[in-house]
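Continuing the series of single-chain predictions for the mutant panel. This is the parent chain; the variants come on the following pages.
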Amino acid sequence: RGLLLAQLACGVWESGRPLRLASAEDAPDTTSSPPDGPTDLSPDGACKEAIQAHCSKEPPGDGRLAHCIREVNRASAARQERITTSQECIGELTLFFRKSLGKGAGHFGGRKFRGPEPIPGLRKACSQDATTHCPNQRGIPLLTCLISHKADLVEGCKGKVAALQLNHAEDPRTDPRFREACTEDLNKIGECARQGGPGAQKACLQMHKADLSNACANEIFRGEQEASEDVRLNLDVFTACKVEVTEFCANKEFGEARILHCLWESSLSPKEREFSPECRTKVDKLTIRSLQDYRLDFGVRRQCADDIAQHCGNEQSRVDNMTLAELFGGMDPDSGEYYREGSSGQVLHCLKKKMGELSSDRCKSEMMRVVRIQAMHIEASPILYRKCKADIETHCKGLDPTRLHVCLRQHLTELSEECKSAEILQGKVESTDMTLKPALMAACSGAIKQFCPDVPPGNAALRRCVQDHMKDSGFPVQCKGAMIEDMQGSGRDWRMKWGISTHCRGEMTRLCPEEQKVGGGAGMQCLRSNFAQVRNPACKHELQRSARFGSDNLKLAPSVYKACEEDAKKYCSEIKPGGGKLHACLLEHKKEVSKECAKAEFAFAAVQLSGVSADDAASRHCASAIKALCPDVDPSSSKMWQCLEDKRSSQDMPHECAEIVDARVALRHSEFHLDSKLSQVCSAEAKRLCPDQISRADAKDFSSDGAVITCLGEKAEEVKASNKDCFEAVARATKQRVQNVARDPVANSVCQGDVKRLCSGVKERGRGDAIQSCLQDHQDDLSPDCRKKIEHYMALASSDIRLNTTLQEACKASVKKFCGEVPAGEGRVIECLIGHMQEPEMDAGCRGGLQYEQRKRSKSVDFMWSLKKGCASDLKRLEAEHQCGDLMLPGSRVDCLTTHVKSLKSPACVESTRRVMQSHSADLRNRASMLRACKGDIKKLCHGVSAGEGRWHMCLRKHFDKIKSDRCKAMVEEIRAQEEESAYVNYAVQSKCKHEQATYCSGVHPGDGRLAACLALHKGETGFSKDCANALLTVKVASKGLAEARTQHMVAELSRFMESSKGWMERHGLSAIVLAALGTALLTFALSYWFLKRRFKKVGYVVSVPDSPDP
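Parent structure:
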């Protein structure tokens, strides 16, 4: 680098060799020395040639010749030229300054100035400041006073004082304070006395602090404080970094520690070239040293004086009264490093704890700089370093010093309490601003420029912006790795997470007082477990944000990771972390993992399910669906999940989002407390109706298998009677389980083997119910436990169209058209639709769904609400009388009722059974036992004949003699007989005679052949269709029924006549009319009976009267 300006300024070096000088007392005095002391170099002395060559225009006196030669030497050094001044002149020059300034400076400030000025023009430039800041001061005290007020001086005086300080730095023996305090120490420590070069003796004494007198040690410490204002006063650093100062800090002014701060900041991310190792080392060392005591940091000392007095007065008083040994501790004689057993750093530590309470913005700014330095250099935080030294040795030995904080946070739960407390404080302050994490800022500088160029750093806004873009295309890998590592460390304790520590402190105190004391991950775990009770919206938001990142990467949820680390190794060792895969794996094994892990996963899931914004995968994959389908719903609200669930089948729902929604619905169904809405509105009902189940659910460890939800669903009617809101929530949950039975944890468990055995080739797609449909199609082949669960939800789907999503969506228009006035529930709407399914206006999709529903109903009374409810007593009686055969066969109870319809006692049961028989007539598939019995014959005899509309019945009747199965033959005959006996049951009549029924028989109640007789009575009238007439030929019309029909017809005619002849009635009296009507009715009955008997006999049609009334 060449010789620097400062190194040659005193003239004690030439060609790199120290010049040996005698003491000031022994050296020959060739200076101009009046009685009061020398005032200048002698023009005829050793410097004669130099004076003549460079300073001939300067008049002798007041040190002008000495200052002139020194400036000439400095200029040569700055140009890296060889200094031509002779060694003798340099010696005389040095002796002059040491002798005249060391003693003669005492005259500065007097009325009559006798002796040279320390700096030319100092007296004139500083006269006003001397009066203002240092009244009544003389000599050395005046100089000391001016130096202490340097920041407040006018610019001219400030420059002169700075020049004086530089002189003292270059040769401490020109500083009277140093000479007085340290001369004996220099003489005692020969190594230091022999040192040459600017600042070398002082630097040597600093290396021997353990051997110094108290006076000299204090003077060295005072000199450090003074030098903290200007890096030029620390010649060791300034010399090593002259090139870096020029290259990186050219736009900075010297003073107020600006250059040192600039060098340190620039060393973190060099703009064009690397710092020299020597400069970097010295800057780091001086920077660390400046934070060992508040007095060594110019910015803190100056800008934080008021805040120190207000908040840290006790600490200040304590350290100000300590000796240096008490403050900094002992020193290793070999390395010269402090043992760090001292008590330094107390004021800075106090200010750091009070960061949020500091009143001065400038002090806050200085303290942010301090924390930023401490984030990189743990030794710059002496209290933390002392408390954590043993832990560093145990957990972080050999690591790069800049990574010690990361290491300590990774081992936070293993640290000593005092180390943990200090590290948490550091992490807490760092969390407020990304710029307080220099390593992270360096790693993410490109990401910030690309993704967050306009985001201010305060309140963690910048860090949050970077975090939110980590999944974006083109995001720098280096930044992502550094950010994840930082998030892992800060997540070890809630106090190191800015949002949580800021917004959740009150909730922590209220909900988790014990965990708050413990610290670590216990606080976060507790807040998650009590998420539903958190009142502060900002706290809820922060918990959701934390969960969002933890949902993607288990390590970003440290409390969960710690609890589940061993379980993850055991059950999920082959799972590649990321994308929520580890969470999913642990949830698949939630029954096998440890209780601690189960509870941690449960608490995490509770927050994740509180809103889409708490779920990373959902936030990314459902963004378009949210925008298109739920634009006005708050993503942080559970209502967003509800909206996505309701729009699950929309074309705007991406497949990835649909899968995520399905998975989250299943998770919510696994435990009562994971459904925030249900647990909120049904808490009282759960305790009242399901005490055992809620007791297990309160463990919050997935051990209850969603039993509370199941229990409430089974007792829905009781819930409905007491709590409408709860009933609606239960109905929603039940509907979701009906849609996909796997959402019932017990059903999912007991049916896993059946899925593998029967549906291994089925993959869930579209609505996600393909596996469920497969299980329903194999209903007869399921294991008992699985079949019981499947049939339970099949029965619920048939009990209320609102629970049957497939039918509800397919029949939306048909419900409005045919069953708009029918109240929902108890299967009423579905039965109404079945009654109209042959209407031409019925939607084809709805008709198809109803056909499937009928085939399902054929297998069990449980799938028909009206039959199950209306026939309970009749069915119980028939079973007790052993009239129902093998009850294990599908549809056996339905067959029992249809076979014994004439013996049923309950009118409601008779009506419901007749509707079942009607469906059997319409489609053979609607009678499970007949389909089972006739399957082979249908395949052989009815190949090419499509099912439905009675076609298979007609086919089998046509080939009756060829039917192989006796059971099938018997059922063919049974259905034929039922159709002949009842027009209401007969599909041909029901489908062909709708117009005729509406026109002529709208008031006829089915039963006892009344409907057939009514139609037969009007058979010959205009408008009676040929198709209906032909259909009537398949029904036996009883004479008694026909007579009753004619009677009813005559009565109706008479009623109309009476209404039209109301005036006549009023004149002749009502009694006469009644008698006439009765007579007419009797006569009509007799004539009709005689007439029909003769007519049907004439055409060869047999009219039979059954032994018992026709149903």
